[in-house]
Automatic annotation (TrEMBL):
Protein name: DUF1553 domain-containing protein
Domain of life per record: Bacteria
InterPro entries: DUF1553 (IPR022655)
A Pfam family recorded for this sequence: PSD1
All residue ranges annotated as the DUF1553 domain in the record: 23-117
Length: 149
C-alpha cells in the first residue's frame, strides 16, 4: 500500500483517492489538488489551495462535532487522556482533565456538569474507566479545544 506523499500528483490522481486519504500527519503534509480535498479538510474549512490565505477561519459546525465524536483517532486520544487523569485521586480528575486538555481549571458550573455527566452514566453498564474516557472525549470535542491557538 502506498503512503501519503508517494507517487505522482496530477492527472493520475482520482478524486475518490484524495477524499479517502487517512493520515496521522499534520494537514500541511497532505496532498492538495485544486478543487479536491480529503473529507476531514473539507469539514474543517481548509482554505482554497488556489488562493493566498494568511489565516484560517475559526468555525464550528454539527458535522465537525459528529466527525470528532465518531473518529477512532479522537477516541484513542481520549483513552490516553483518561489514562493520564486516572493517576490522580478521583476528586481531582475533572480538574486535571481540564488542565491537560484546555490549560485551565473548570469553572464551578463546568465541574458540576462534569460530576452530573459521570453520575448520569452510572445508570449505564459502563465501567468507571469507560465513563472517564467518555468525559475526556467530550473535552476533546469541545469548540474551545479545537480553537486553541
Amino acid at each position: 500500500m502506498r503512503e501519503v506523499g508517494e507517487g505522482n500528483v496530477g492527472q493520475n490522481v482520482f478524486e475518490p483517492v484524495i477524499r479517502a486519504i487517512e493520515s496521522n500527519h499534520r494537514s500541511v503534509y497532505l496532498p492538495r489538488v485544486r478543487g479536491v480535498l480529503p473529507e476531514m479538510l473539507e469539514l474543517f474549512d481548509a482554505p482554497d489551495a488556489s488562493l493566498v490565505s494568511g489565516a484560517r477561519e475559526t468555525t464550528s459546525s454539527p458535522l465537525q462535532s459528529l466527525y470528532l465524536m465518531n473518529n477512532p483517532f479522537v477516541h484513542r486520544q481520549a483513552s490516553g487522556l483518561a489514562k493520564r487523569v486516572r493517576q490522580f485521586p478521583p476528586s481531582e480528575r475533572i480538574k486535571q482533565a481540564y488542565m491537560i486538555a484546555l490549560g485551565r481549571n473548570p469553572t464551578d458550573q463546568q465541574e458540576q456538569h462534569a460530576v452530573q455527566f459521570m453520575n448520569d452514566l452510572s445508570d449505564s453498564r459502563l465501567t468507571t474507566e469507560e465513563k472517564l474516557v467518555a468525559y475526556c472525549q467530550t473535552l476533546l470535542c469541545t469548540t474551545e479545544f479545537n480553537t486553541i491557538d
